[in-house]
Write a structure and sequence with these properties.
By secondary structure, the protein is α+β, with helices and mostly antiparallel strands. It has 3 domains: 3-42, no CATH class; 55-102, no CATH class; 105-180, OB fold (Dihydrolipoamide Acetyltransferase, E2P), CATH 2.40.50. It contains 2 helices and 10 strands. The longest helix is centred in the first third of the chain and has 25 residues, at 3-27. The relative contact order is 0.13.
Length: 180
């Protein structure tokens, strides 16, 4: 993250904690309406910030593929099961004998949910849709669904999995878009 985004997060956390402290002082409870005022939310008074790093060396090909404009899954050479996100080992066969397979991209929407109440670290995004689709290759993928109006979403609609740049963070990821 760039310095300006870090500064925005810091200010956001400061303001959130200040508001929470005021609510607790006034009501005796850490309960406040969400930013739209629709729901009452419990806010933990303890701050928990986690940044972590994990090795992706054995599935690095997946991230290289995103940079190349390709989305990859892995498939076990022994049992033929697909894994997405990719796995380096097959939990069924207990082997590390995997093929990299480029995902065709087309799928059918199985289910979705519109996220209105977001975790604080996602609060800078407008409401978004998280969906699960069954890909033509036969496995399910969980991803954001980019759509202008959630009322247009229908279970069974055709979607395409494509690469997207998540802003303002600037990293590559994948998302669904409806196929017209």
């Amino acid at each position: 993250m760039g310095t300006s985004l870090d500064a925005k997060y810091e200010e956001f956390w400061r303001q959130s904690i200040k508001q929470l402290n005021e609510v607790v002082k006034a009501t005796g409870m850490p309960i406040a309406p969400d930013e739209k005022g629709q729901y009452s939310l419990w806010y933990d008074v303890r701050e928990l910030r986690i940044r972590f790093s994990i090795s992706v060396e054995r599935i690095k090909r997946f991230f290289e593929g995103l940079r190349e404009g390709k989305i990859y899954a892995t498939r076990c050479r022994r049992c033929g099961r697909y894994y997405f996100p990719p796995q380096a080992d097959c939990p069924y066969c207990r082997v590390s004998d995997m093929d990299w397979v480029e995902v065709g991209g087309e799928g059918e929407l199985l289910t979705y949910t519109v996220i209105n109440t977001k975790p604080l670290t996602f609060s800078h995004y407008p409401d978004y849709v998280v969906a699960i689709a069954r890909m033509k290759e036969g496995f399910n993928v969980l991803a954001w669904l980019r759509i202008d109006d959630p009322r247009k979403i229908r279970v069974g609609m055709r979607v395409r999995l494509q690469i997207a740049r998540r802003e303002p963070e600037g990293y590559l990821t994948y998302e669904f878009v409806p196929i017209e």
